[in-house]
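Try this one yourself first.
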C-alpha cells in the first residue's frame, strides 16, 4: 500500500514536470537561454521520479518529443491503478499549449520541499492563493460570505472603478485582482474580451492566418470566436462567433485600469459559484423544491447549496451540493480524501463536460457517502424527485 502511495507521488511529480516544461515550451516571451534552463530543471525532476534504469534512458530529445504526444511514454506507472494521464496531450492540434496545463500544474503540485529544491518559481505557488481565499471567506459573516461568493461570479473582471463600486466594503479585503495589462495571453491588439458566461478574460490563440478567442472554461459549451478578417482599426477588433454560446462581445482596453481575478480564484472560486447558481436557477421554481444557497452555519469548504424536495406523502429528499471545477478529477479525489468523511450524504457536482469522468471519481470516493454527478444529471434527478417531466 505504501509503495503504491509513493508511486502516486512520483507520478504527480513527473506530471507537474511535464506540465511546467510544456508551459516553458509554449511561452513566446521566454528567451532561448531561459527556456533551456527551465527544461533542464524539469527533466531533472522527471528523471528523479523514475527508476534509475529508466531515468538513464530519458534524454532531452526524448523529453521534448514526448511532451508533444500522449504523456504515457514519460510518466512512471502506478502498479494496480490507471488514470487518464497516459493519453493526455499537453498541446492542441495547432501546437499550442492547452488551456488546462496551468491548472494541472496547480492540482498535482509536488510537495513544497521538492519545489524549493527544483522549482523556485512564484507561478507554481498559485495554490497558496486559493488557500488564502478560503481563509478570508471563513472569517466573514454569513451575509458577507454570500455576497462575496456572488461577487466572485458576477464581477470577476472589469474597470477598477466599476469593480470597487460593486465590491464596496469588501473591496479592500479581497486583494485577488491583477492588471489585465500584465496578461499577454488574453490581449488582441491591446484589447481583451470578457467571456459572456463567466465575464473573465478569454484566451487569444493565434495560429497561421487566423486568430481564435475562447473561454478556457466554457469553450466546450460553445464560447469561442474568430477575429473578423480586416477588422483592424482604431477600436477593438471585431469577433465573429464560431460556437453556439458565442453571443456578441466587445473588447475592453488591456490597461492597468482593468483588473481580473487571479487564475486560481477564478478557477476554484468563481467557476464553482457559477455552476451552483446555474443549478439553483434551474430547480428553484420547481414544485415542492426549496433551495438554500450558502448555509451560514457551515464552513465554506463543506457545501454551498442545500436543495430540499418535500413532496406530500413521500420521504423528504435532501441534496447537499458542493460544486467543483478542477481540471484533474484525480487530484480532486486526493484533495477530497484528505478531508474527514462528511457526516451526511454529499453530492459533488461536476461540469457537464466532465461527465465521462464521474464514475472514476465516484470509485475513488467509495465508502464516503459521496455521490458524484453533473449539472444536467442532477437537474433531471431533482425533477424526477418532485414529479416534473424531464
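Now uncover the answer:
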Amino acid at each position: 500500500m505504501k509503495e503504491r502511495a509513493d508511486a502516486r507521488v512520483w507520478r504527480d511529480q513527473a506530471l507537474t514536470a511535464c506540465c511546467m516544461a510544456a508551459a516553458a515550451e509554449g511561452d513566446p516571451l521566454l528567451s532561448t537561454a531561459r527556456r533551456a534552463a527551465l527544461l533542464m530543471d524539469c527533466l531533472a525532476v522527471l528523471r528523479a521520479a523514475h527508476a534509475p534504469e529508466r531515468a538513464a534512458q530519458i534524454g532531452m530529445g526524448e523529453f521534448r518529443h514526448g511532451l508533444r504526444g500522449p504523456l504515457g511514454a514519460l510518466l512512471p506507472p502506478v502498479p494496480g491503478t490507471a488514470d487518464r494521464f497516459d493519453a493526455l496531450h499537453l498541446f492542441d492540434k495547432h501546437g499550442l499549449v492547452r488551456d488546462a496545463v496551468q491548472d494541472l500544474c496547480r492540482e498535482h503540485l509536488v510537495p513544497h520541499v521538492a519545489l524549493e529544491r527544483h522549482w523556485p518559481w512564484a507561478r507554481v505557488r498559485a495554490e497558496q492563493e486559493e488557500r488564502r481565499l478560503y481563509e478570508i471567506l471563513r472569517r466573514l459573516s454569513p451575509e458577507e460570505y454570500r455576497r462575496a461568493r456572488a461577487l466572485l461570479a458576477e464581477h470577476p473582471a472589469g474597470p477598477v472603478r466599476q469593480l470597487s463600486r460593486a465590491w464596496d466594503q469588501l473591496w479592500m479585503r479581497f486583494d485577488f485582482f491583477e492588471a489585465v495589462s500584465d496578461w499577454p495571453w488574453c490581449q488582441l491588439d491591446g484589447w481583451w474580451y470578457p467571456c459572456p458566461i463567466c465575464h473573465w478574460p478569454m484566451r487569444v490563440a493565434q495560429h497561421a492566418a487566423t486568430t481564435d478567442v475562447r473561454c478556457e472554461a466554457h469553450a466546450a459549451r460553445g464560447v469561442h470566436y474568430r477575429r473578423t478578417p480586416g477588422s483592424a482599426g482604431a477600436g477593438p477588433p471585431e469577433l465573429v462567433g464560431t460556437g453556439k454560446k458565442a453571443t456578441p462581445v466587445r473588447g475592453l482596453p488591456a490597461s492597468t485600469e482593468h483588473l481580473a481575478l487571479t487564475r486560481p480564484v477564478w478557477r476554484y472560486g468563481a467557476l464553482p459559484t457559477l455552476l451552483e447558481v446555474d443549478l439553483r436557477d434551474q430547480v428553484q421554481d420547481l414544485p415542492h423544491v426549496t433551495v438554500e444557497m450558502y448555509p451560514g452555519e457551515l464552513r465554506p469548504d463543506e457545501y454551498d447549496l442545500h436543495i430540499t424536495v418535500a413532496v406530500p406523502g413521500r420521504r423528504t429528499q435532501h441534496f447537499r451540493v458542493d460544486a467543483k471545477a478542477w481540471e484533474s478529477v484525480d487530484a480532486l479525489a486526493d484533495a477530497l480524501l484528505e478531508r474527514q468523511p462528511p457526516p451526511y450524504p454529499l453530492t459533488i457536482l461536476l461540469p457537464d463536460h466532465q461527465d465521462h469522468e464521474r464514475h472514476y471519481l465516484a470509485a475513488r470516493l467509495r465508502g464516503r457517502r459521496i455521490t458524484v454527478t453533473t449539472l444536467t444529471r442532477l437537474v433531471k434527478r431533482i425533477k424526477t424527485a418532485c414529479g416534473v417531466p424531464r
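Discussion: The chain has three domains: 2-120, 153-261, 263-385. Residues 2-25 form the longest helix (24 residues).
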